[in-house]
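We emphasize that the prediction below concerns an isolated chain of 171 residues; any contacts that depend on oligomerization or on bound cofactors are therefore not represented. The input was used exactly as deposited, without trimming of termini.
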Amino acid sequence: MTTITLKTKIKAPKQIVFDASRNIDVHQQSASKSNEKAITGVTSGLINLNETVTWRGKHFGFYLTHKSRITAMSFYNYFVDQMEEGKFKSFRHEHFFEETNGITSMTDKLQYETPFGIFGKLFDVLFLKKHMITFLLERNKVLKEVSEIYIHKYKIINHQKIGTLSTQKEV
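Result of the prediction step, given as a token string:
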């Protein structure tokens, strides 16, 4: 079994990061290089506990499908997506969120097994693990951008409303 653990620091509350992380549209944006699309199950918006999504994307020159279910969720702290159908022997992706002083630490723990015995293990060592790390890093880069831009826009809008209210009070 291969385990990949990545930590990403995001300047946004964990509620925002948590929702961005389970947002199907944000995932499709982050996976645009593989042309990955949600084709069945939840295909847009936020995915929730016990819901499924089937992805179709191009990896290693082939279009592949991967069906996952959200098998555990503790709002704003943790959720798990697990493969139900796909090319892996097993696939489990845990998402952890912790916030300190407005900065969210998002941790991905991805565990998977390849089929085909020693040939699958060799493919993993030579190609797959690096591909999965690159895929997750791109996903996390987009999650960070989306979450931080959202907060920045919220602060601008909120500041404008406060400025408008204080101006109205002065008049």
